[in-house]
Amino acid sequence: MKIKLLLLSITLTSQLFAQSYEKIHRKAIVVDTHNDILMKAADKGIVFDQDLTGKTNSDLARWKKGGLDVQVFSVYCDGDLKNPYDYANREMDSLDAVVARNPDKIVKVAGYAELVKAVKQHKIAAMFGVEGGHMIEDDLNKLDALYKRGARYLTLTHNIAPSWATSAADETTKPALPHKGLTDFGRQVVQHMNELGMIIDVSHAGDQTFRDVIETTKKPIIASHSSVYSLVPHRRNLKDDQIKAIAKNGGVIQVNFNPGFIDSSYDKKETAFLKKHAAENDSLLKSGLTDYYAVDYLYGKYADEANTMRPPLSMVIRHIEYIIKLVGVDYVGLGSDFDGINLTPLQLDDVTTYPLITKALVEKGYSKKDITKILGGNFLRVLKANEEK
User: Fold this and answer.
1) Buried/exposed code over 322-335 (b: 16+ C-beta within 10 A; e: otherwise)
2) SS3 for 160?
3) Which of 52, 59, 161, 284 has its CA 20 to 30 A from that of 369?
4) pLDDT of residue 74 exceeding 60
């Protein structure tokens, strides 16, 4: 009898726990500030209001299944592409087409008030984040035009940076640079973004660019998809002093799920994998595939090998917790990089798995209030602050 009662108690406790984290997840406004599905829509012609299970990390139905409320869609192209502004608009067209076909499921929002309204209507609130200042082609009028189309942040640099700001790649790999940080025009870009109410994103920025931004901006900033340098010393991650500076600025760090940014052993594993398949990789590159799509193909073909390289979900939580312990719970969120990364952490297979993050945070003992901040509340605060005149 005692054993039966014990088993019943364990079952009831388990059921209550499941209800607890699922309820928290449903009630929170869940925000992901970086998803690259528009890149694949432009490059491969995929249509993401169709079922893309097994092909991508994301599609419209799966966002809803994962409890996502707000998606910031990355608008990205390589830094040496000709006419990047035109390419940005082409990517934006693909989201606009999905929104037009699915007005009952997804809506493009201009700001905080429209976002909240969309969430109350059980629609996904969509915005753009332009990934790379090169896409404005040194023209503030083009920055204005992208803002009018729904871009609510600009990542100042990508790996190949614009003429007016240096990237982390520039500052760590190039021995001689004409300048470091923001030029006078780069400061104009930051100031103009402040005037527009457009969030400044320092993911990919070099250290000097980061310092110049902090000195120039009058509004809170974000790192839309970055993790912690002290845990994984990758140039794309943020050092402790940068995390502290973002917190002091009132901004937020959106933790990236990229295995190479959250697991210090991953780069060695990937190097060994690519060495093993070097001949095939070279053939793919010669056929015209980019590095990204060549690796994507190889990971798909050799999925069993790739799966052994994936870090656990706990490593994502580790980066979130590091930021919380360093500066507090008000300065961290989620910037998955889904469909922009070749592999995801274990359990985080696609966008349906966001509730597992909530579950992990509940298991760690975080309160409903704090989890709600992490899932999206902190980003919403920064969005709202940037809109204030």
Assistant:
1) bbbebbebbbbbbb
2) coil
3) 59
4) yes
